Amino acid sequence: AVPAGGFVAAASLLSASSLHAHADDSAPADGQVPEGTPDESDTAAQESPIVAALRAQMASLGAELEALRAHAAEVASEDAQARRLQQAVQAQEEEDSLKMLRLLQQQEKVWEAVAAERLGDQAKALAAEHAEAVLQLRSELDAAHEAALSQALDEASADFEARLEVLRQNERQAHEATRQAESASRLEQLAALHEAVESFDRAYAFDAEYKRRSHGVHALAAALFSLDELLAGRSDAPLADHLASLRSAAPEDPVVTAALSSLPPTVTKADVPPPTLAQLQHRFETVSSQARVAAYVPAGTGIFGQVVGALISALAFKEVGLVEGDDAASVVARAEHYVKAERIHDALAELDTLRGLPRTVAQDWMDAAYGRCALEQARSLLRAHATTLACALA
After folding, report:
1. Which of 302, 305, 328, 365 could be disulfide-bonded to 287 (CB atoms 3.0-4.6 Å)?
2. pLDDT of 143-175, one tens digit each?
3. What is this structure's pTM?
């Protein structure tokens, strides 16, 4: 029988022995160095103190583990406690094996890091040498290229200067010939241009005169249209404004000046617009009645005669139409007929034969009618003149 303390010591020895055996199995054969691993001297230098201590402990525990195995084999059949010990030893052995494997993996990573660091240093050194070589080669190429380029530039400059001199001589000769030809051509062009400018000047003067006359004709027509609106009663502007428009439309036209000068001062200086035809007809109704009364008033009778004339006019038969006779009533009757027929000129011719009080009664209406007739005559003359000017422009 093995005491309990002996089982614990045996388990410890067995664990150490399994670690040593696992490490020996994973190690390479004698005299062989694995590919991609450092040599023995580098490995010994790189091993940590922990790994060296583990190797020493495994070496010391190897013999003890073998003895323990032999002893465990002898007592395996004695009792169940031995079997349990064997199972514990196996479990401990597996656990130790895993620990040893982890340690070896850590050591392998350390080796890989060392190798990568060394390879990195070598790569940096090679890259520095390569960069230096590239710079040297580039400087040599730049120098050679600059020399070749300078030589080619000198040769090209010399050739260019020679060709340029030939071209200059040819150009001077051609320029002299061209200058002479251009001088002759320019003289011809100047003569043609002078003739064209004179033609254009004449055309421009004609066009300006045509536009001036056309503008004058249009302005005169517009002023005449404005005068028509005034005579028709569709404008409230003073007559002086319309006459001023006519004068400004043709300030140098003798026909317009003569037509406007023929108007009587009572018309041109009036403050109110001339009466329309309808207004003259309406006013003549009152004037004709008053003129009939005046025709029957005895001379020098005063107010009494006015009353007598009114009574006689009211009792007497009112003559209408183109009646015969030279008395005032007959004249007024014919004038009234002409006014209703819009024949103001004929009515004025009849009223112009009146004398005395009937003439005095009709004088205001006659003055207004004379003014309108004068304006109509001037308008007709100016319209005909404007038509003549427009035809002359066409």
Report:
1. 365
2. 888 888 888 888 888 888 888 888 888 888 888
3. 0.41
